């Protein structure tokens, strides 16, 4: 056998060995997938029929580039941790457990610090939109701890997961996914780097995509509405409340004493729908000179650490609830705002 033929034979043997090793490796990976159900790429959303239909609709309805959308969804994947978080929201806790999450000495102190650092901006927002500085501060404090906790999930993953793999609210989140893609295009956001909460809320004020598009403002005049930036976040929260009907100078909610309506049940409707007078007539005792927009109120019952608490929620309490429909959320924002205001040097108590 000549040397040339020998080299060819040896080369073929090496190639065969490499092929066998490669086939063995692929086989092991396939077996691992079959046994564990795990795919290293987490199976991209582009492989699902529902997403392909959604992409076609976005192209037809909003003239998106299909190739770009395919690229985005090929990099998106289902996240089970998001679905798990949706099934155990903090608002499911009773008030006596929910309140301590947000009414802490540290959160109150940090709220005062945030107000002091941004005093001029908050004053400008209050003058322009009529929303008290302490309410703006409290919203940002409850939502993201004054910008410290803005969320770690890629928004595309969050909204795709909830829109295509969470049937209870799929319709809502699919619409938010549509709004998010429009937002990315309009505001020139970097889709791959845009992160938020497990529900796809973004920025210091945690706006969902539709709210971002509708209520965010360019408060610093730099040509972009950037809710990860303090100035725009402050202006946008204030604008959100103004657009939802905040009544300047009016009360939010007052504590009541129950003297005779043990059978009274908390209504499911958050919008004030009964007269203040009717609550008095049924045995609730509260501030005698209480008045608010429309003179209507709603009963709020909370399971406090010392038993059931009765509150009379007014128009501005309802406005806070437009941010999050839970009465516990609205109460946490209100009480945090009051505590921050008490500690703010120079503020009227």
Please provide a written account of the structure.
The chain has 15 helices and 7 strands. Among the domains are: 105 residues, Helicase, Ruva Protein, domain 3, CATH 1.10.8; 69 residues, Lysozyme (Orthogonal Bundle), CATH 1.10.530.10. The strands form 2 sheets. A 5-stranded antiparallel sheet has the order 4-6-7-3-5. A two-stranded antiparallel sheet has the order 1-2. The chain is of the alpha+beta class and 349 residues long.
Give a summary of the structure in a few sentences.
By secondary structure, the chain is α+β, with helices and mostly antiparallel strands. It has helices at 3-36, 49-62, 66-74, 80-86, 95-102, 105-117, 119-129, 133-144, 155-165, 170-187, 209-215, 230-243, 276-281, 315-321, 327-343; strands at 153-154, 195-196, 253-258, 274-275, 284-285, 296-304, 307-313. The chain starts with a helix and ends in a 6-residue tail after the last helix.
Number of helices: 15
Shape: globular
Give unreliable regions as ranges: 21-41
Considering DSSP H and I runs of 4 or more, what fraction of the residues is helical?
A: 40-55%
Please report which band the strand proportion falls in: under 5%, 5-15%, 15-25%, 25-35%, 35-45% or over 45%.
Answer: 5-15%
Number of strands: 7
Query: What fold name stands as the CATH topology of the domain at 51-84 and 151-216 and 239-243?
Result: Helicase, Ruva Protein, domain 3
CATH superfamily of the domain at 51-84 and 151-216 and 239-243: Bacterial muramidase
Please give the CATH class of the domain at 51-84 and 151-216 and 239-243.
Mainly Alpha
Order of the strands making up the biggest sheet? 4-6-7-3-5
- What order do the SSEs take from the amino end to the carboxyl end, as H and E? HHHHHHHHEHHEHHEEHEEEHH
What characterizes the major β-sheet?
A: 5 strands, antiparallel
Radius of gyration from CA coordinates:
27 Å
- Mean of residue pLDDT? 87
Estimated structural class: alpha+beta
CATH architecture of the domain at 51-84 and 151-216 and 239-243: Orthogonal Bundle
């Amino acid at each position: 056998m000549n040397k040339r033929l020998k080299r060819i034979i040896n080369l073929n043997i090496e190639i065969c060995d490499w092929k066998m090793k490669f086939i063995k490796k692929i086989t092991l990976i396939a077996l691992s997938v079959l046994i564990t159900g795990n795919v290293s790429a987490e199976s991209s959303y582009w492989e699902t029929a529902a997403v392909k239909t959604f992409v076609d609709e976005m192209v037809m309805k909003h003239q998106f580039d299909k190739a770009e959308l395919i690229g985005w969804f090929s990099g998106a994947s289902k996240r089970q941790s998001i679905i798990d978080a949706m099934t155990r929201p903090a608002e499911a806790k009773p008030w006596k457990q929910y309140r301590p999450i947000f009414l802490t000495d540290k959160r109150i102190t940090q709220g005062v610090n945030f107000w002091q650092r941004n005093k001029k901006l908050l004053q400008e927002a209050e003058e322009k939109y009529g929303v008290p500085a302490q309410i703006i501060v409290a919203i940002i404090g409850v939502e993201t701890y004054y910008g410290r906790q803005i969320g770690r999930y890629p928004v595309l993953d969050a909204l795709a997961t909830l829109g295509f793999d969470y049937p209870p609210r799929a319709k809502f989140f699919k619409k938010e996914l549509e709004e998010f893609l429009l937002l990315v295009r309009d505001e020139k956001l970097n889709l791959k780097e845009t992160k938020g909460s497990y529900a796809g809320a973004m920025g210091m004020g945690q706006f969902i995509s539709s709210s971002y598009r509708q209520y965010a403002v360019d408060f610093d005049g730099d040509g972009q509405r950037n809710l990860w930036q303090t100035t725009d976040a402050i202006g946008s929260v204030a604008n959100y409340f103004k657009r939802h009907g905040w009544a300047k100078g009016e009360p939010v909610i007052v504590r009541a004493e129950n003297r005779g309506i043990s059978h009274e049940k908390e209504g499911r409707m958050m919008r004030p729908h009964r007269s203040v007078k009717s609550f008095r007539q049924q045995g609730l005792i509260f501030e005698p000179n209480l008045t608010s927009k429309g003179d209507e109120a709603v009963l709020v019952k909370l399971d406090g650490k010392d038993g059931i608490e009765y509150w009379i929620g007014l128009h501005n309490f309802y406005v806070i609830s437009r941010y999050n429909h839970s009465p516990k959320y609205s109460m946490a924002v209100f009480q945090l705002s009051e505590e921050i205001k008490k500690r703010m040097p120079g503020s009227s108590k």
